[in-house]
Structure formats: C-alpha cells, structure tokens
Design goal:
Layout: H1 4-16, E1 21-23, H2 29-36, E2 44-45, H3 48-54, H4 65-77, E3 83-86, H5 94-103, E4 108-112, H6 118-135, E5 140-144, H7 156-172, E6 177-179, H8 186-196, E7 201-204, H9 212-217, E8 222-224, H10 228-245
Parallel strand pairs: 1-8, 2-3, 3-4, 4-5, 5-6, 6-7, 7-8
Helix pairs in contact: 2-4, 5-6, 7-8
C-alpha cells in the first residue's frame, strides 16, 4: 500500500470499521519501524509531545513546524502503513498545516481545540477538512476537544455536554471522529458515545484507563497512547542505567531492532 490515496482510504476505513482501532504512538523513524513490525499494527500515529521531547522542545507548539513535519515525514518514509500525525492546534493555520502534512505523506491528523471559543474551534476543523479535500486525499481528521483537560467546567455533566456539543459540530464539518482525551470512566465513555454516535469517539489510554476490549464493546472508534509509549521506553532506559551503574548487566532477551 504505497499510494497516498490508498493509505488515506484505508485509514478512514479503519476508523469506521466495527473493530476498535488501536494506534501505538511513535516519535521517530526507529520507533515507527519497530511498531510497524508488530503484525497487529494497522496504522501508525505520531505523538507531538514525544517528537518535541526527542528534539529538545517542550510540548505545546514550541517546536518549529518545519522540524515537526520533518520528523513526521521520516516516519512516513519507513512504512507503507497509513500515518496519522498529531498536529496540535494547527500551528496558527490549521488548513495550511494539514496541506503541508499531506505533502509529506500523512493521511490523518489530530487537531486540538485548546478550548478556544466555539466558533473559532469549528472554523479550524472546517479549514482542515477543506484543505484535505482540496488535495484530493481521503483524510481521517481526529478532531480533539480539551474539555476534560481544562477547568472551564466544574462538573462532569457539564464537561460531557460541552464535549458533545463541540464534537457534533466537528463531525458536521467533516471530522472523522472526535478525540476526547482524559482519564474517562465507563459512564463518561458511554455518555460520550451516546451523544456522538458509535465509532465516532476517540480516546487516549493512560494508566488505569478502561481496557481496549471494553472500549470496543462501548462503541469507541479509536484508542491511542500519546506520550505514554515514549515514557515506557524511557522508563526502561532509566531502569537499565540504574542497574548498570549498580554493577548489573544488560537485560536478558534484549533484541536488536532496526
């Protein structure tokens, strides 16, 4: 699967299929190669936080867009699988950023609202969808709302209501699904699926989250792992360094992965 349109159509299909789409996030070429080798991997997704950290920048669009897209392009180049890129809030111009991402082979993206005013957030999704359509590439836009990450609403009921309000507007503009990050309990997931529709909700898994099998039963479209995959790798590196300095040796079973 090398044609960008074929990859785009496949990523859209994976989001719409009855099976939960799991994407294990990657942050550079070697992490992409390793995850792509796993037979169950059907698509790749980048993590903006992890790419920024790799290149010495804090999260939050502090990394220059050119550097972010350069790394994303390197990830696309090492796999035939569809790649979705975390493009944060669009780096000041959601439509142009999507267009440039498509230029390096991306066929899907996260676009976060950062709880900007409603009309502004909807306009960014509209611009992203229009840019992809203008390029003639089937594109899976994972439109993110940060309702559960910010303190704009005091109760869970109000957060759910606002997430559904924004999410429905994003879907109306052509988003493939609505990404609601946060540590969501089962009741919250059920209500979000009820408000957005089955196979329309995308979530992130964090320690203590609902397991993938239950997310599928609840009608979730996609689960990703954000910066947690890099944190797992870095935890292993930290623990290995402690062990080596304490007189230990490299872990048995360490693989040569390229």
């Amino acid at each position: 699967m090398t044609d960008i349109r074929e990859r785009g159509a496949e990523l859209r299909r994976l989001h719409e299929a009855p099976e939960l789409l799991q994407v294990v996030n990657v942050w550079d070429a070697i992490s992409a190669r390793v995850v792509a080798q796993v037979p169950e991997t059907r698509a790749l997704a980048t993590a903006s936080h992890s790419i920024a950290a790799t290149l010495g920048y804090p999260d939050g669009e502090r990394i220059p867009l050119d550097l972010m897209l350069d790394m994303v392009g390197r990830i696309v180049a090492v796999t035939d699988l569809p790649v979705s890129a975390d493009l944060e809030a669009g780096y000041g111009d959601a439509g142009e950023t999507i267009r440039r991402a498509i230029d390096v082979g991306v066929v899907g993206a996260n676009l976060e609202d950062q709880m900007k005013p409603f009309d502004e957030a909807v306009a960014a999704v509209r611009a992203a969808v229009s840019a992809a359509a203008a390029e003639g590439v089937p594109f899976a836009l994972n439109a993110r709302t940060d309702v559960f990450l910010r303190d704009a609403f005091p109760t869970d009921d109000e957060k759910i209501e606002e997430a559904v309000r924004r999410g429905r507007a994003f879907l109306d503009e052509g988003a493939t699904c609505v990404f609601v990050p946060g540590r969501l309990d089962e009741r919250t997931v059920q209500r979000l699926v009820g408000g957005l529709g089955e196979r329309r909700l995308s979530v992130i898994a964090v320690p203590g989250s609902l397991p993938p099998a239950r997310l599928q039963e609840l009608g979730v479209a996609r689960v990703s792992y954000g910066p947690w995959t890099q944190r797992v790798a870095l935890t292993a590196l930290l623990e290995t360094a402690h062990a080596l300095y304490a007189g230990g040796s490299l872990p048995e079973g360490t693989q040569v992965l390229t």
